[in-house]
Amino acid sequence: MCKLRFSCCVAFLTALATPSIASATAMFMGLGDFAGGATLSQAFGTSADGSVVVGRGMSALGNEAFIWDSANGMRELDQVLANELGLDLTGWTLTSAAGISADGLTIAGYGTNPSGNTEAWIAVIPEPSSALLLASGLATLAVRRRRRAL
Description:
By secondary structure, the protein is an alpha+beta fold. The chain is built from two helices and ten strands.
């Protein structure tokens, strides 16, 4: 069953058309904008605790999906998925991140697929502990294969 949860932090558009985040203390903070495009970014979703925000921004290439967190700021989502998680996004353009799960680990949006058609996508980001477990398991397998080959 799907449940909707609302965060104490809400992403919204400011008068300058850049997304901002408002905390329970009513302090506002701009999330950023991509270089080269119009000064226009839109936030469409936040994790339950407000620590991760997703949406779309304009760059020199057009609309691009973004992900924001306080440690890294606003980044192109396709670059995060490719460079940090090793996903092969060849031919894809992630146009917009339309929503994010409460835990911040599942992001949904739409973009252009390698055939040039608009298509919805879902990215499931492994929890850090799962990623470490997977990496250590793969490293162990590699060591065992080397030993057997010798």
